[in-house]
TrEMBL record:
<dbReference type="InterPro" id="IPR058624">
    <property type="entry name" value="MdtA-like_HH"/>
</dbReference>
<dbReference type="InterPro" id="IPR058792">
    <property type="entry name" value="Beta-barrel_RND_2"/>
</dbReference>
<dbReference type="Pfam" id="PF25917">
    <property type="entry name" value="BSH_RND"/>
</dbReference>
<dbReference type="Pfam" id="PF25876">
    <property type="entry name" value="HH_MFP_RND"/>
</dbReference>
<feature type="domain" description="Multidrug resistance protein MdtA-like alpha-helical hairpin">
    <location>
        <begin position="115"/>
        <end position="172"/>
    </location>
</feature>
<dbReference type="InterPro" id="IPR006143">
    <property type="entry name" value="RND_pump_MFP"/>
</dbReference>
<comment type="similarity">
    <text>Belongs to the membrane fusion protein (MFP) (TC 8.A.1) family.</text>
</comment>
<keyword id="KW-0175">Coiled coil</keyword>
<feature type="signal peptide">
    <location>
        <begin position="1"/>
        <end position="45"/>
    </location>
</feature>
<dbReference type="GO" id="GO:1990281">
    <property type="term" value="C:efflux pump complex"/>
</dbReference>
<keyword id="KW-0732">Signal</keyword>
<feature type="domain" description="Multidrug resistance protein MdtA-like barrel-sandwich hybrid">
    <location>
        <begin position="75"/>
        <end position="209"/>
    </location>
</feature>
<feature type="coiled-coil region">
    <location>
        <begin position="115"/>
        <end position="142"/>
    </location>
</feature>
<dbReference type="Pfam" id="PF25954">
    <property type="entry name" value="Beta-barrel_RND_2"/>
</dbReference>
<protein>
    <submittedName>
        <fullName>Efflux RND transporter periplasmic adaptor subunit</fullName>
    </submittedName>
</protein>
<feature type="domain" description="CusB-like beta-barrel">
    <location>
        <begin position="224"/>
        <end position="299"/>
    </location>
</feature>
<dbReference type="InterPro" id="IPR058625">
    <property type="entry name" value="MdtA-like_BSH"/>
</dbReference>
């Protein structure tokens, strides 16, 4: 006879898992628990903490910038001083030379002949001088004994003076010929580098023909052409700085040790040339012809600044990572203004006051990155 309890027990269904093998039940439990465990592990494994700074307005000196070019303070175009064929060009562009080092040799056969002729003239003048000295000495002795007149002695002494002058003239001619002979060897006037060669072996050299261009590696200067419309403002600027490019794509603003303004404007471009000599320690990192930026700073103005390293540049994209209220970072495109060096880079658009900007944009872009507290 069935009781109500036995009827209720019979009516309850048997769980499916109870009818499955133990291994199958373990596999199903792992399958359903794996996503939950993965989410829990991801929540526990937090991303890197990145330091942030607040984008705040600061008072900085504002002004204007121009492109400049680095050039050596000492540079020369070494030219020929003698006529003849270039027999040898002893250097090439990029060679380092010392003062007095041979740069080129010019055919010296003509000058060598002139030197030999002048040497012969000196020998002839020496012989004539010795003869005149002997004649004057004999005439003086004879005049003392009364055998010749005073006029004869005067003539002998005049001949001696003429022979002495002729000898001096011959010696001067020899020096001139030797100097002309030396001009066939073109040498470096100072230590430096060969920037360009302007002649080749076989070319005809004439006095004034350029042979090579040299420059001294130090000191260097930045040359910038300032429009006449900005000339007065440039002279009134409180600071003039040159931006020296860095190895990582950035750069540093440095002050020149000396500035020079040419008094004459370019009649075509209507610009004034400024020459800014660079410190030796910085000049060693630059090369002649390299482009730099020159900044003329004036009055103070309030600008929004961020650290230079906080700016992320990818092609034409310029952006920063801003801490989001709900956590993590958001990439925001920004438009930059002037670079104020250590003070920061000016942000013209894209940020709001009090935005928390990531100092390291590379780490801020990693998954799970969060602002450091």
């Amino acid at each position: 006879m069935y009781t109500p309890a036995s009827i209720k027990a019979r009516s309850m269904p048997t769980p499916i898992s109870a009818s499955l093998p133990i291994r199958t039940r373990q596999w199903l439990a792992g399958l359903f628990l794996a996503p939950a465990l993965a989410l829990a592990a991801a929540a526990d494994a937090a991303g890197p903490e990145v330091a942030v700074v607040k984008a705040a307005a600061q008072a900085v000196a504002v002004g204007f910038e121009f492109d400049g070019v680095v050039e050596p303070v000492k540079q020369s175009t070494v030219s020929a001083q003698a006529s003849g064929r270039v027999v040898q060009l002893a250097v090439t562009a990029g060679d380092r030379v010392r003062a007095g080092q041979l740069l080129a040799t010019i055919d010296d056969r003509e000058s060598q002949t002139g030197l030999q002729r002048s040497q012969a003239q000196v020998a002839q003048a020496d012989a004539e001088l010795r003869n005149a000295q002997a004649h004057a000495r004999r005439t003086r002795e004879l005049e003392t004994k009364g055998f010749v007149s005073r006029a004869a002695l005067d003539t002998a002494e005049a001949s001696l003076k003429a022979a002495q002058a002729a000898r001096d003239q011959a010696v001067a001619g020899q020096r001139q010929s030797a100097l002309a002979q030396g001009f066939t060897r073109v040498t470096a006037p100072y230590d430096g580098w060969v920037r360009e060669t302007l002649a080749q072996a076989g070319d005809l050299a004439v006095p004034g023909k350029p042979i090579v261009t040299l420059y001294a590696p130090l000191p260097l200067r930045a040359v910038v052409h300032v429009p006449m419309s900005r000339g007065a403002a440039a002279r009134a600027a409180s600071d003039v700085e040159v931006r020296v490019p860095g190895s990582n794509g950035g750069g540093a603003w440095i002050k020149p040790v000396q500035r020079e303004i040419l008094p004459v404007a370019d009649s075509v471009a209507q610009t004034l040339e400024w020459r800014l000599e660079l410190p030796g320690a910085v000049a060693g990192q630059l090369a002649p012809g390299q482009q730099v930026r020159v900044r003329f700073s004036g009055s103070q103005s309030v600008r929004m600044l961020v650290p230079p390293g906080a700016v992320l540049r990818r092609g034409e994209l310029t952006a920063v990572y801003v801490a989001a209220p709900q956590g993590g970072f958001v990439l925001k495109a920004v438009r930059l203004g002037a670079d104020h060096g250590a003070a920061g880079v000016e942000v013209v658009a894209g940020l709001r006051p009090d935005d928390q900007v990531a100092v390291d944009p590379v780490r801020a872009g990693l998954a799970g990155a969060r602002a450091a507290r």
